[in-house]
Specification:
Strand 4, helix 3 and strand 5 form a beta-alpha-beta unit. It is built from 3 helices and 5 strands; from the N terminus they run αβββαβαβ. About 30% of the residues lie in helices and about 15% in strands. It has a domain of about 80 residues: 2-Layer Sandwich (Nucleotidyltransferase, domain 5).
């Protein structure tokens, strides 16, 4: 009986690594939309019908939290805090790129009504044609 010596293989089997990568990709694709973004804002409750928004990606949200801090958020992007004076500058740039964009305001129910009206004035001066207020449906 003669034994033949085998040479060691000099190749790496990457199939298991590809399988692991695909499983991780699927996990991240499923869990990423579930990660909450932004900060906690207590919206006022209102019993009314929701406005139909044909393309939900065509909007920008300006938030006012309980500490009277402003932030701007666009779909798929991280929100960033900004002073009221500079919000108009940012909204003007966004409206220049897309004149029909819907601007939404998310304001904590504990803030002063005057801050919301001041923000609406800044948004209108920046060229916002359509400004909406976000509310939550009351718990039943």
């Amino acid at each position: 009986m003669s034994r033949t010596k085998r040479k060691p293989m000099a190749q790496i089997n990457v199939v298991p690594y590809i399988d692991v990568m695909l499983v991780l990709l699927i996990i991240f694709m499923v869990t990423s939309p579930m990660i909450p973004q932004g900060e906690k804002i207590d919206l006022p409750d209102l019993t009314s019908e929701a406005l139909p928004i044909s393309d939900i990606s065509e909007h920008v949200t300006v938030q006012i939290n309980a500490q009277n801090e402003y932030s701007i958020q666009r779909p798929g992007k991280e929100p960033f805090k900004e002073d009221l004076d500079l919000i108009g500058v940012h909204i003007t740039k966004i409206i220049t790129q897309n004149p029909d964009i819907l601007v939404l305001i998310r304001a904590d129910e504990s803030i002063n009504y005057g801050l919301v009206m001041e923000l609406i004035g800044v948004l209108k001066a920046a060229g916002a044609v359509s400004v909406g207020l976000e509310t939550e449906a009351p718990a039943q």
